[in-house]
Every structure is written in structure tokens, then in C-alpha cells.
Design goal:
Layout: H1 2-25, H2 31-50, H3 55-93, H4 98-104, E1 106-117, E2 123-133, E3 139-148, E4 154-165, E5 170-175, H5 184-188, E6 191-199
Antiparallel strand pairs: 1-2, 2-5, 3-4, 3-6
Helix pairs in contact: 1-2, 1-3, 2-3
Amino acid sequence: MVKSNHKSGLSTASLVLGIIGVVLAFIPIINNAAFVLGILALIFGIISLVKNFNKGKSIAGLILGIMAIIITLAMQQAIVDTANKAEKDIDKALGNSTEEVLKNEANVTLGKFEVSEGQYGLVDTKMIITVKNISDEKKSFTLHIEAVNPDGSRLDDDYVYANDLNAGQTQEFEIFNLVSSDKIDALKTATFNIVEASSM
């Protein structure tokens, strides 16, 4: 009688552990326990099958144990993937992924620095920047543009804010409009670079 209860108990334990494991597998952090319960359900289910104990409960416990392990691993992978994506999005928003943004999301064309005579004898300056959203979703871009001397020292810098560009949309922006008169000649021969590109 004790032997029969032991046989029944092992297959029942496998079934119960499998059920609890599957339920807990969907709950983040707690699903670490579900993984252990799934392994125990698997072990008890295998022992019950090998020793020819209650086959129905043993097979059910075995299946539920495997499900608990698979669901736990899938849930944890989903959490890791979500965290990695969030980190990547934060990097893009902070300008830490300039190369990736310029390669996959924004096509930026730097025009020439132009100087012309404005009203009242004032000098007007500008540079046309063309920004095209080459991604497949609406994006906002922030671009930091610098003008440097041949020796690499920065002469001046400016920013472009391209908000809510639809996929494939192109927009032009004017920068370097407020350049002090002592920098104008140097900017005519300067090299212009994109220092930072961020997207949201």
C-alpha cells in the first residue's frame, strides 16, 4: 500500500509541479522558480515513466515540465530583447549611435556655406542642410554640425532639428545664419562635419 502511494505520489508530484511551473513561467523574476519546478516535474515524470507508475499523470507532468522550461526561457529572452532595444533607442536619442542613424535612418546632405549682402549693408550667411528620413517610420532627428579649420580646430557649430519627418520625407533647413563677422572668411574655407546625429 505504501509502495502504491509512493508510485502515485511521484507521478502526482510531477503533474502538480508542472502545472505550477507553467503558471509561474509567465511572471517575470518569479519565473526563475518556474524553471526549477519545470526541471523537477521533468525528472519526476521520467522516473515515473521508466518505473511504469501512473502513465497518464507522468506524461502530463513531463509535458507540463517541458512547457514550463520553454515558456520561462522564452519570457526571459523577451525581457532581454526589450531591454536591449530600449538601450539602443536611448543611445540613438542621446546621439551615441551617430553612424547607425546616418546609415539606416537619415540621409543628410551638407550644402555650401553662402555669404551674400543683405539689407542695410549687413552680411547674410547660410548653409542649406537637406535631411531625408530613409527609415520606414516617422522620425525626429537632431544633428550637430561643426565647421573646422584645416588644423581640425572648431570655428563654429550649429544644430538642425528635423521634427516628425514621415518615412521617405525630405526637408531643407538653413543653419549658420548668425555668424559673427570675424568668422565669415574662415568659414568660407572651413570643412563642415556632422558631429552627432540622434533620432527619436
